[in-house]
Amino acid sequence: MDWSFFAQLLLNGIVMGVIYALVAMGLSLIFGVLEIVNFAHGEFYMLASMLAYFLTVQWGFDYWATIVVVTVVGLAVGYVLFEGLLFSLRGEAFERSILLTMGLSMVLQNGAVFLFTTTPRMEETPLSLQNVQFGDLRIPMARIYALVLGVVAFGALYLILHRTRLGKAMRGGAQSRVAAMMVGIDTRVVSRLAVAIGIGLSGLAGAALAPIYSVHPLMGFSFVFKAFAIIIIGGLGNVAGAAISAVMLGIIESFAGGLLPLAMTDAVAFVAMILVLLLRPQGLFGRGVRV
Amino acid sequence: MSPRRILLAVIAGLVALFVVPLVTDNEYVLALGVSFAAMSVLAGGLNLIYGYTGLLSFAQVAFFGIGGYTAVLLVVDLGWSLWAGVAAGAAVCVAMGLLVGYSSLRLSRHAFAIVSLSFALLCAIVARDWPELTRGSMGIPGLPTPEMKLPGLRWRIVEPSDYYYLLMGFAVLAHGLIYLVVTSRLGRAMRAIKLNEPLAQSQGVNPLSYRLLALALSALLSGIVGGLFVFYLTIIDPSIFDFYYTETMLISVVIGGPGSFWGVLAASAVMTVLPDLLRFTTDLRMVLYGVALIAAILIFPGGIGGWFYRRRLARWRRPQPKKSAP
């Protein structure tokens, strides 16, 4: 295998892994704080991609403006989602939360199919033609931006969780909801913030992905399953573990896609998840976060 | 209703189901009957695992499809008889169910939901992307006509009414088995696990073994139904793993009432007829289903079964009229 092919696979894998990471971190954060698996997470990512597409192509927003607008919309949607639907599910309601968000996912996905049809759309902007040349390796600018955005988002989330009072409250809520309430943490505020950040991150992921791959209403559905596998591999509720597992999965999938038959590529995530569950049920980076 | 009246109603229902193909050979009615038989067993299996033991399983559609694919491949490629193929498919389903259940339940029931979901998706991907085994997305059309050979009896299953009897007969057996399980000690233990797992454990009930049992049983029934149903369709392709089946099953169970045998049966009958009534709006049908699911979860958590149960409780609590002393 020649060097540039190897480097290309590695780079594609890292970029895809960072996109996975943005979605999976949000999913993991929401699970950690609320003990809810957000089934509709992939649909928000899909809607964010669609919004990014329409902003750039129809209304002529530039790249950074699109990223900011979509992320802010994502945060706002997360706020509304929590207050509108998820808050009514207090307490032991894991299965109900899945069914509820699944209903939401059906509405969003099929509504998007109804409005936009399943035709894939490719965002053609000046950015999609820009490349950076490293020797005989050519890297599209959009991928580098996606990579940078992912790293910045991860850093920001880490700082929020570990350097602010609100982040401390979120981690406390994730460790024990009852104890957090006893020391005067308003779990409603904390949960709301976790959902807003989670949806905001998948908005960022969708907006960063739109210039790289084509956009269509069914993209969120298959994507979110991988995100589920990632949060199990990384340890349920462990945000950093989810990020690391996501990048690893992106790289492994990229190499599997380059070297193995098609069926194997999509099976990688599932096989990895089953292996992790059998050998190390708390996840690779578990530390026994609350499960 | 008193047990005696329930028994009479069940017998009347069974006779009615048996008589349908005798009084009509309308293919549409028979096709609805076959769909109802298949869907109700799938929903019943999901109810057993979710409604009674509290595990939300998305793997039921995977068992349905694996049962179908295993039976078809054994019959078409290796020349097995349908019955052997279906039995083998059911065995594979049980093995897969135990693998998924055992590996994920060691962690938590949250992990079970996620793993079962990924498992169902993986099956769809394998069916589509492994053409050497499954013929890929084209599927395997033109399945042979099954035949039942017993001493002195040869039943070629060709007509819609034959399939009606085959699938409805199996559905009756399957629901009978589910009913026996949920009304026995096993069912009580399962319900106890769902209501309060630590309390059930303290009484010596091991949640893992009961949950695996419920999972294996529902995998078995779904696998058999899958094997029989694809021969009725005469074709199998990856759409048998479609998420649509999962959604229909979940709506049947949630609206019917998780843990309510009769509620889920009634809801799956409604969900068999509903797609045809909503034919005029195919695009928005799934949106409506989604809205129904959200509404049921938020407003109507116990489903139909839960509503009847609460009504019955209220009647019991009503003060009895005092009998005058003799």
Explain this structure:
The complex is a heterodimer of chains A (291) and B (326). Chain A is mainly alpha-helical. Chain A is built from eleven helices and two strands. A two-stranded antiparallel ribbon of chain A has the order 1-2. Chain B has helices spanning 3-23, 27-52, 60-78, 82-105, 109-129, 131-134, 160-183, 185-195, 197-202, 207-233, 243-256, 261-277, 282-299, 303-317, and strands at 140-141, 147-150, 153-156, 235-236. Chain B is mostly helical and 326 residues long. The longest helix of chain B has 27 residues, at 207-233. The model of chain B has no long low-confidence stretch (mean pLDDT 85). The A-B interface holds A 31, 35, 37, 85, 88, 94-96, 98-100, 102-107, 109-111, 113-114, 221-222, 225, 228-229, 231-232, 236, 261-263, 266-267, 269-270, 273-274, 277-278, 281-282, 291 and B 50, 54, 56, 99, 103-104, 106-111, 113-115, 117-119, 121-122, 125-126, 129-130, 243, 247, 250, 254, 283-287, 289-294, 297-298, 301.
Brief synopsis:
By secondary structure, chain A is an all-alpha fold.
Give a topology summary.
The complex is a heterodimer of chains A (291) and B (326).
Chain A: H1 3-34, H2 41-57, H3 63-84, H4 94-116, E1 131-134, E2 137-140, H5 141-163, H6 165-175, H7 177-182, H8 187-209, H9 219-234, H10 239-259, H11 262-279
Antiparallel strand pairs in A: 1-2
Helix pairs in contact in A: 1-5, 1-8, 1-9, 1-10, 2-3, 2-4, 2-8, 2-9, 3-8, 5-6, 5-8, 6-8, 9-10, 9-11, 10-11
Chain B: H1 3-23, H2 27-52, H3 60-78, H4 82-105, H5 109-129, H6 131-134, E1 140-141, E2 147-150, E3 153-156, H7 160-183, H8 185-195, H9 197-202, H10 207-233, E4 235-236, H11 243-256, H12 261-277, H13 282-299, H14 303-317
Antiparallel strand pairs in B: 1-4, 2-3
